[in-house]
């Protein structure tokens, strides 16, 4: 995370992020071994990986003790207030980080911050572009379209060209490849227009090359989607990109884009032509599963959940879902997915599946009705 990005997290998220940071420090003292660090805490590693809310005092005490801190010292470290973002440059750096993290909540807070403290009229246009990116991150294409239209009406500063281009590219490709549950929106033209207004602008870069790999994966995915199994060069390029994605965040983007693209393409080709696509799907999903089990990073979990949703939709479209085989793991996966991507309920396959097979979703559905 960028050092300024914590300023735009809610207090529980800040505490959760600092707890993970404290555990990362413990891992460093254990020669980089997360398992050894968890043993020092006398805590199951899964408890750390699945931490999604404010940590208990017992957990803080154990983590502090493993680092040689008493409970009050550990709590003081976690309670330390981060330095706030003071400049527009820092806000923009935090937006770029939140984009790479695919974090809708942080993007929404950053957009709100731009609207509260605009230093230039074009800040309001950027704020709506960030809102569009946040909407895409949670799978809401309709809201993204509405925000993108407002962004275009308000305009942007020339100095924000690279950031706008990065946001626009993500909005456009994610709306096509990563939201198979979304109905077409009349404002989809705005996604293309956002890219058009930044033609000739050099894209943002990052130290780990994640954006370049993400960009290449989106374009290979678009070619695969349009060419089907005829796009063998796109399939080969996807395999090469998976080989190159050594960084966990790069892998999260590349593997999820590969799987999403292949899943959608698979629903439109005959069974006799789907073997290469199936091979890409299996490789990408296994890579995501392995990365998730090793780190539990939020980006990896979010991207894996997108793939899981797309797979359920593809199976429903192909008539491959047997309700008798759905177990508790499947229920948990669907419940989490629909919580993170609520507009996925727009998919007839997912909604019917959830209402019929997930008791907790039946209650939510009854309340909404």
Description:
- The protein has 369 residues and is mainly alpha-helical.
- Helices cover 70% and strands 0% of the residues.
- It has helices spanning 11-29, 34-41, 45-49, 57-66, 71-79, 88-101, 104-116, 122-137, 141-154, 161-177, 189-196, 210-227, 232-244, 248-266, 275-295, 298-317, 328-340, 348-357, 359-368.
- α6 runs antiparallel to α7 and α9 (141-154) packs across α11.
- The longest helix has 21 residues, at 275-295.
- The radius of gyration is 21 Å and the shape is globular.
- The model is unreliable at 1-7 and 362-369 (pLDDT under 50).
Give the topology:
Blueprint lengths: L10 H19 L4 H8 L3 H5 L7 H10 L4 H9 L8 H14 L2 H13 L5 H16 L3 H14 L6 H17 L11 H8 L13 H18 L4 H13 L3 H19 L8 H21 L2 H20 L10 H13 L7 H10 L1 H10 L1
Helix pairs in contact: 1-2, 1-4, 4-5, 6-7, 6-10, 7-8, 8-9, 8-10, 9-11, 10-11, 10-12, 12-13, 12-14, 13-15, 14-15, 14-16, 15-16, 16-17, 18-19
Q: Bin the strand percentage.
A: under 5%
Shape verdict: globular
User: Into which percent range does the helicity of residues fall?
Assistant: 55-70%
| Quaternary assembly | single chain
Helical stretch count? 19
Taking Cα atoms only, what radius of gyration do you get, to the nearest Å?
21 Å
Overall pLDDT: 82
Strand tally is 0
- Largest β sheet strand count, sense and barrel closure: none
Task: Determine the structural class based on helices, strands and strand pairing.
Answer: mainly alpha
**What pattern of helices and strands is seen along the backbone?**
HHHHHHHHHHHHHHHHHHH
N-end to C-end Cα span = 40 Å
Low-confidence stretches: 1-7, 362-369
